[in-house]
Each structure stands twice: as structure tokens, then as C-alpha cells.
Amino acid sequence: MKKYLSASLMCADLLNLEKAIKELEEAGIDYLHIDIMDGAFVPNITLGFDLINALKKITRIPLDIHMMVNNPSQFIDRLNVDENDIICVHYESETHIHRTIEMIKNKGCKAGLALNPATPLECAENLTDYIDMLLVMTVSPGFAGQKLFRGSEKKVAKAKSLLHEWGSENILIEVDGNISLPNGEMLSGAGADIFVLGTSSLFLKDKSLTQAAEDIRAVL
Ligand code: DX5
Ligand code: ZN
User: Fold this and answer.
1) Mean pLDDT value of segment 147-168
2) Domain that residue 168 falls in
3) pLDDT tens digit string along 57-106?
4) Which CATH number belongs to the domain containing residue 102 in this structure?
5) pTM of this prediction?
6) Among this protein's residues, is 176 annotated catalytic?
7) Count of domains in the chain?
8) In testing the pocket of ligand 1, which one of 9, 10, 64, 136 has its CB within 8 Å of the most ligand atoms?
9) Which of 64, 86, 105, 150 is the most exposed place for a label (fewest CB within 10 A)?
10) Which alpha helices (DSSP H) does the chain contain, by range?
11) Ligand 1 pocket, residue 148 CB under 6 Å
């Protein structure tokens, strides 16, 4: 099974972003992970719509947009995406999450459903006909540099087997938060497909992006 690398841009050198994107292209990164926060759903504010528009002009790496905002349906129109991009919304962020996911699919891109660490996997069961990806958060969303939520490996393994039981093996499992080399290896073994890479394995002081991408790819 192919494993996908998604680089978390909030962890990149924001003053030299274009240079970082070129290096990520050369390193064969599969997605650019864009964290959009509103200071309400999570206690932080990071990247936004203008950055997405700017990125679209300089790269063809697909975007993996992680909406950590209350009522994301109000912002779906604002997202500049094409068919290879993913817009991922949190189960916990909308009353009518199915309607929001339909709005995403109507834009012609892929849709993801994100679950906070404490949210049970069963919340995804009735949405399997509508989503392309299930994001199992491995930290509480909002910040880089946190520690892996205990039991993440078990949760990913359970997600894999539930998706099989539901006849939805086509849905990719993404993990986000503290994906270090050992955690990446463990979660890959449990069945994760897409790995969000931030300060734990990709954006490191003592390693080039190319080398860091090579090192994580080797253990997945
Ligand atoms: C939040 C972010 C972070 C982060 C991951 O959704 O996506 O989880 O960038 O990088 P780490 O945890 O390795 O700093
Ligand atoms: Zn994220």
C-alpha cells in the first residue's frame, strides 16, 4: 500500500516559504498540509485563504486543508481548490456535518472527516459514502510540538478494521500530530496511509528537508 507524506506548512520557515516548497517538491512530498484555525474551535490562529491562493500560483503539489474552525461550512466557498486537493472538516465543528461534506464534494475536490482524539470512530460510520479520507488526530488539534495521544495506535488499527467491516477500504486514514520516526512506523503498521509531518520528523534544525523526507519514508 502506498504511503503518503503531507508536509505541515505551519511548521515550515514562513519567511522562506517558496524555497521550502521547492525543496518539498524535489523531496517528492505528496501533499501540503494547511492548518486553518479560527482561535475559537482551537486556541490558535495560523494559515489562511490568501496563503492557499498564493500557493496555487507556485506549486502543483495537492493541498491537504485541515479546517480547525467552528462551522466550516461558512468558509467552504472561499477555498481555492481543484480535484486533487482535500478539504477536511472536524466532526465536532458542525451540527450538520453531512451537509458541509456535500458542499465540499460539490466543489469537485476530495472530502475528509477529522476526529479529535476523544471522538469515537463510530461517528464516521454513516458518512463513509461521502468521504475520501478519515483524519484520526493523534494530538489535540491546534499546536505543533505536542506529544502523541495515548492509544493512537489502537485507534488507527480499529479505524482500519472498521473501514473494512463497513466495506469502505477505499477511504484513506490520515494521522496528524507528533509523527516522529518511531510513531510514524508504529502508526503505519497499524494501517495509516497519510502522514502529516511537522516538527517531529520533517522540519528539523539539523537535517535537510530532502534527508528528513527520505528518513521518514524509509520507516513507513
Ligand atoms: C495541527 C498540526 C500539527 C503539526 C504536526 O493540526 O497539523 O499537528 O503541524 O506537527 P508536529 O506535531 O510534529 O509538530
Ligand atoms: Zn493539521
Assistant:
1) 98
2) 4-219
3) 999 999 999 999 999 999 999 999 999 999 999 999 999 999 999 999 99
4) 3.20.20.70
5) 0.98
6) yes
7) 1
8) 10
9) 150
10) 17-26, 49-58, 97-106, 152-165, 181-190, 209-219
11) no
